[in-house]
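Entry 14. Ran structure prediction on the chain below.
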Amino acid sequence: MGLLQQLPALQVAVPLIGAPFCALMVRPRLAWMFAVAVAWITFAISIALLEQVLDAGPIHYTMGGWPEILGIAYVIDPLNALIMVLVSGMAAIIMPATRIGIDVEVVHRARHLFHTVALLALAGMLGIAITGDIFNLYVFLEISSLASYALVAMGVDRRATRAAFHYLVQGTIGATFILVGIGLAYMMTGTLNMADMAARLPGVSHTAPIQAALAFILIGTAIKAAIFPVHSWMPNAYTYAPSLVSAFFGATATKIGAYMLLRFVYSVFGADYAFGDMKIGWVLIPLGLTGAVAGSVVAIWQHDLRRMLAYSSVAQVGYIAAAIGFANRDGLIAAIVHVFNHGLMKGALFLVMACVIMRRGKADMESFRGLGRRMPLTMGCFVVAGLSMIGVPATVGFVSKWYLVSSALDAGLWPLALVIVAASLIAIIYIWRVVDVAYFTDPPPGARDEAPAMLVIPAVVLCALCIVLGVWTDLTVGVADTAARLLGGAP
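Output, structure tokens:
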């Protein structure tokens, strides 16, 4: 019973403490095995926490016996419990594949530290999700961000360093905006605890510093979530990073940014103030839908398929931003569900890229020639995840798009519902381009067969989840509905 009570602390402590131990292991295989064990332990903890939250309600954990408003507090509710399942689950699925992936796509001088940095990124993301202290959220954000920049820079392509630097510059700007917003909110409320700050904000919500705080935090989280038009760090970062890093980040990094936006808006500032007084929906909806259309259109013209998937992510994050902006119950459910569902889809697609790179050295359109015959399992995963990206029924993509369209209709904005459907249909074009090349052209001479099972199996697992959770929606929609009810829904 004592161990179960410490699970909130262990959720972050296990990967955070495990990282330096991993660095001390001189044998790469031993470091890999240790990192895999840590990832699976954190995944088990996140599942246990989600079960506890659904059974008994939110969990409040304080460090060192200090009162929650004075010390460091962890608060777990259905929203962040689901986010932690996504982050730790993706780490658990992808980490085993790094044993062979880093030999192909990570520069030699950085391989011995790869798993150490990956565990730091994992710890930072889990810390962002679990903390109930607004300044600790910033601290964990910096931990995950610095680790993320390093992981991108480890790519063998020389352009990875430039992409990492661009990511660092924009990420630092985003973090600075968030820190300024936190400082302004602290100046006016005298507290850093999210719940305590939420209770004190109504008395000072009319002041300029609080209005500026929301504006700064909105811009900072938009950069971290890669919401159009502050998304420019993402295409190069996802294209030139090692494919397994792109798979993990594609499934988690922008989702953590979206989570922060949800947490600040609903748990700190409050939906009534954010949407009613400050009208942030007037910002999120046009930017989100513009990003959804523009990201999908630009993805059509990409020759490098990792860049195509990056611009596709811009579009998918746009759906999440618009769903939040609709400021109603279905919109909140759509945002939460799509955060989780898009993580599964995009993780699977980037794992397909890793498989293709393992066999053909590149992931451009030419590399996909004849893959339908040479690598049928890999290409099958691409088709399933691609159909989910489009929003075909019986896939997870359909579930979140359904709630997104419903939220637009509930808000009385039926023309925007048509925009959402049109943007989703554009995805057919760039997905079909790949299918056409893979199934209706001949493979080049000497083309090899399937990638190693250690790379293919994670993609198969994620694609299976895309179908299972598209039919059985109790986990995603059920948890999202509970989270929306606890967050307070719309103003």
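Residues 329-360 form the longest helix (32 residues). Will compare against last week's run tomorrow.
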